[in-house]
Design goal:
Elements lengths: L5 H9 L5 H19 L2 E4 L1 H17 L9 E5 L26 H9 L2 E6 L35 H9 L4 E5 L6 H6 L3 E4 L20 E5 L2 H11 L31 E5 L9 H16 L3 E5 L7 H16 L17 H12 L2 H13 L5 H22 L5 E5 L14 H6 L5 H6 L3 E8 L5 E7 L5 H15 L5 H5 L2
Parallel strand pairs: 2-3, 2-4, 7-8, 7-9
Antiparallel strand pairs: 1-3, 4-6, 5-6, 5-10, 9-11, 10-11
C-alpha cells in the first residue's frame, strides 16, 4: 500500500478493496520504522490519524465519502493545528499549542484527509537544506547512506512523501521552498499563484511572498491536493477570489493537433548548471517539441537580479513578522533584568543563527538610512521582473526552465550563507512576480539522483501549468515509488 499514489488509493478506497484504517496503519508502521532515521516529522499524531481513518471508513460505508477521504498526509509544521503543537522548527515555539486551525489544514480536514503528523522544516522556513531546524535536518531517502539534503524549507514533507511516510503533504514556497526540495527528491512541488491558497494560520516568514502549496509523487496527486487547498478566505486579506478544481487524470494540453508556445528564458542560458541538468532539460524540451509545441526564446532582463532583490525584501518582511516573538504573549520567555534585557535574552535563546541573520539584515534595510537605497530599489526590481514576465507571456503560453542547478548535496556541505542563497536562483523570480510554477521530475542524473524542471505560467493559469507538467512527467518516466527509492 505504501507505493500507491493518491489517485490509485482513492480508487481502491471507493471500491472497498482497502480501508482507510489499513492504509493509515501501513503508513504509521513505516513512520515507526524509518521516522527517526529520516527525521522528517517533528510531531507524529498516530491517535488522531487512526481516528481520522475510522471516520473516513464510516463515510465510505455510508456511501458519502469526501474528496480525499482516508488519504494520509503530512502537514508542514508551519500551519497551526488546533491542539497539536506547531513549532515552526524553532526553539521559540517549541511548546506552542494553538487553539485554532489554519485555513489550509482545516480545508484538508474538510476533504477527509488523515493527519499523520507535522513535518520538519527550516526554522521559520528560513533556509535551503532544512538544516536550520531546531530539531535537526531531515534526510533525503534517495541514497540514504550518503545523508543528502531533502531540500528546504519544506524538506520534512519531501522526505516523508518520497520515503512513503506520507502519501502527500503541504509546503510553503517563499523563494523556492516547495520546488527546490521537490526537484531533488523526485517529487512534484506546486507553487500556486500567490493568493490562491490562504496564508491564514500559517506562521509568517515574508508575507508578500509566502505561498502554501502541495507536494506529491505525481502531478495528478498534486492537482487533487491543490483542489482541496485552494479557495478564497475572508480571513486573509491577500486571498484571491479564485478557485482551482482539477478533474484527474488531467487532460492533455499538447498532442492531437493542439499547439502551444513554450518560452525558454534567455538570461538563464548564461547560468551554469550541471551537465546532467542541461542534458535532461534539453531532452524534455525536445520531447515537448515532438508533441507539436513551438519553442521560443523570451527575455526577463532583470531575472538575474531577482536573488538580490529577494534577499532584501524577504528579510525585511521577516524582521517585521518576527517582532511579535518578544517573550510577552506566547512562545519562549527568558527573564532578564528589565524589559529590554528580557527581549534580548528571549530572542538570543529562541532564534537560531540563520533567523537572527535575516532579522538583522531586514532591520538594517528598513532603517531610515537604508530604506530608499535598498528596500525601495528591491521593490522596483520586483516590479520590473513582474512586468517582464507579463511581456514574455505575450510571446508564449508557458515557460519551462530548470528548478535547480544540480542534484541533492550532502547535508554537511561546507557552503557559505551566500552560496546557500544562490541555490534559489532559478526559483525566486516567480515568487517576486506571484505567478504559478511547478517543479516536476524530469530525469535521473548519472549519480542516480533525480532532477526536476519547472513549468511557469501566468497568474491563475495554475491548471495549464500542471497540464504541461504532466507531459514532462510522462516523458521522464521516473519510478519514484518509495520502495524503489529506498530498496525496502
Amino acid at each position: 500500500m505504501i507505493d500507491l499514489t493518491i489517485t490509485d488509493a482513492l480508487e481502491k478506497l471507493n471500491s472497498r478493496e482497502i480501508s482507510a484504517t489499513e492504509l493509515t496503519r501501513a503508513h504509521l508502521e513505516r513512520i515507526e520504522k524509518y521516522g527517526t532515521e529520516l527525521n522528517c516529522y517533528i510531531t507524529t499524531t498516530p491517535e488522531r490519524a487512526l481516528s481520522d481513518a475510522a471516520a473516513a471508513d464510516a463515510r465510505y460505508v455510508a456511501g458519502n465519502p469526501l474528496p480525499l477521504d482516508g488519504i494520509p498526509i503530512g502537514m508542514k509544521d508551519l500551519f497551526a493545528t488546533r491542539g497539536i503543537r506547531t513549532t515552526a522548527a524553532s526553539h521559540m515555539l517549541e511548546n506552542f499549542v494553538p487553539q485554532y486551525e489554519s485555513t489550509v489544514s482545516q480545508k484538508f480536514i474538510d476533504a477527509g484527509t488523515v493527519l499523520l503528523g507535522k513535518t520538519n522544516l527550516d526554522e521559520f522556513a528560513m533556509g535551503t537544506f532544512s538544516k536550520t531546524s531546531y530539531f535537526g535536518a531531515p534526510i533525503n531517502p534517495w541514497q540514504m547512506e550518503r545523508k543528502l539534503t531533502a531540500g528546504g524549507s519544506s524538506g520534512g514533507t519531501t522526505s516523508a512523501v518520497a520515503s512513503g511516510l506520507a502519501m502527500g503533504g503541504t509546503g510553503t514556497d517563499t523563494g523556492g521552498s516547495i520546488r527546490f526540495p521537490a526537484s531533488i527528491t523526485g517529487l512534484v512541488g506546486m507553487k500556486p499563484t500567490y493568493g490562491l491558497c490562504s496564508r491564514w494560520g500559517c506562521v509568517a516568514f515574508a508575507s508578500s511572498l509566502d505561498t502554501p502549496g502541495p507536494i506529491a509523487r505525481t502531478v495528478d496527486d498534486a492537482a487533487l491536493l491543490l483542489s482541496a487547498m485552494a479557495g478564497h478566505d475572508p480571513k486573509d486579506s491577500t486571498s484571491a477570489d479564485a478557485g482551482f478544481h482539477a478533474h484527474t487524470p488531467l487532460s492533455p494540453i499538447l498532442g492531437d493537433g493542439k499547439k502551444l508556445r513554450i518560452g525558454i528564458i534567455k538570461e538563464f542560458s548564461d547560468v551554469k548548471v550541471s551537465p546532467d541538468m542541461q542534458r535532461i532539460f534539453d531532452a524534455r524540451i525536445a520531447d515537448l517539441k515532438s508533441l507539436g509545441a513551438d519553442v521560443v526564446e523570451v527575455s526577463i532582463p532583470n531575472i538575474l537580479d531577482a536573488l538580490a532583490a529577494y534577499y532584501i525584501i524577504a528579510p525585511a518582511e521577516a524582521s517585521s513578522n518576527l517582532a511579535r516573538y518578544d517573550g510577552m504573549r506566547y512562545g519562549l520567555r527568558v527573564d532578564g533584568a528589565d524589559l529590554i534585557d528580557t527581549y534580548k535574552k528571549t530572542r538570543a535563546a529562541g532564534f537560531g543563527t540563520e533567523v537572527q541573520r535575516r532579522m538583522i539584515i531586514g532591520t538594517a534595510v528598513l532603517s531610515s538610512e537604508s530604506y530608499e537605497v535598498y528596500f525601495m530599489q528591491a521593490a522596483r526590481v520586483r516590479r520590473l521582473i513582474a512586468d517582464a514576465f507579463n511581456r514574455a507571456f505575450a510571446q508564449c503560453d508557458l515557460i519551462v526552465c530548470p528548478a535547480g542547478a544540480g542534484t541533492a548535496l550532502p547535508l554537511d556541505s561546507d557552503l557559505t550563507p551566500l552560496e546557500y542563497y544562490a541555490l534559489d536562483l532559478f526559483t525566486v523570480a516567480m515568487n517576486l512576480a506571484g505567478i504559478p510554477a511547478c517543479s516536476v521530475p524530469a530525469g535521473i542524473a548519472e549519480n542516480g539522483l533525480p532532477l526536476g524542471v519547472q513549468v511557469v505560467g501566468r497568474r491563475f493559469d495554475d491548471m495549464r501549468v500542471m497540464q504541461l507538467a504532466k507531459h514532462v512527467e510522462q516523458f521522464a518516466g521516473i519510478d519514484n515509488r518509495p520502495t524503489k527509492i529506498m530498496g525496502k
